[in-house]
Amino acid sequence: MNTVLQAHGLGKKYGRRWALTDCDLEVPAGHVVGLVGPNGAGKSTLLNLAVGMLTPSAGTVEVLGAPAGAQQAKVGYVAQDTPTYARLSIADHLRLGRRLNPAWDESLAQRRIQHLKLDPKQRAGKLSGGQRAQLALTLGLAKRPELLILDEPVAALDPLARREFLQDLMEAVAEQELSVLLSSHLVSDVERACDYLIVLVDSRVQVSGEIDTLLATHFRLTGPRRDQKDLPRDQHVVTASHTDRQSTYLIRTGQPILDPAWTVTQLTLEDLVLAYMGRDVQPERPVLEVQR
């Protein structure tokens, strides 16, 4: 299977307001995919549709080759704010996971709880934010999913708890060889944990591709003022700014930049994400996808 999630013309409407409109998206298998976008881009709505918690108002979404919700046994989900049952103990959560999931890995769950030095008798409501997040991740991983979906699971955590969560996630990915879709507004977390990027703005995919390839094909050009139409055709302009004498372009190209008039600099992942998030939404198809 080449993709674990496919959306076509997907939309969700609440009353008169569309939270997601005409979204086309593909999430490749075998990657840790970072889904990044501004608030209101539709990220959480998309993920809730993908796991079957919401019903589409328009379009379709398939997960692991079947309509969303049909493969729940193969999909792990850690929702925003990592919700747990405050009055249930950690042991209660594991018993519940065992009863609800046919492929439940009790050994994995117990190993993680011991590794985290959590007391199985402790109620979830008494845990710290980082501990609740780790419990939620344990439940998702012990399900032995083919796809793990995480909706900003570390946004409210302190830097140390966030680092520990992402480290545990990366170790689990290496051990279980599962696909991951991680929604986040923290570019540093995506850079640390992900190898594939999707930037979503106003329900539209602005760019997608393997992070290493994206960084190798995007550049900032600074030099004497020049009109965009005078650039080579293989240099796709993402953003442009000008003064009276100087032009600065952020471009995507797979070809060498030979013009000596330009000062060429590499981009950081944050530079790249902010550039695509900050430009006007581009409705045309196909979206910008960088492939090897």
From TrEMBL:
GO MF, one term, reads: ATP binding
Tell me the ranges covered by the ABC transporter domain, including all copies.
5-227
Question: The organism sits in which domain of life?
Answer: Bacteria
What are the UniProt keywords, alphabetically?
Answer: ATP-binding, Nucleotide-binding, Transport
What single Pfam family name could you report for this chain, choosing any that match? ABC_tran
Entry-linked SUPFAM superfamilies? P-loop containing nucleoside triphosphate hydrolases
What name goes with this protein?
ABC transporter ATP-binding protein
Q: What organism does the UniProt record list as the source?
A: Kribbella sindirgiensis
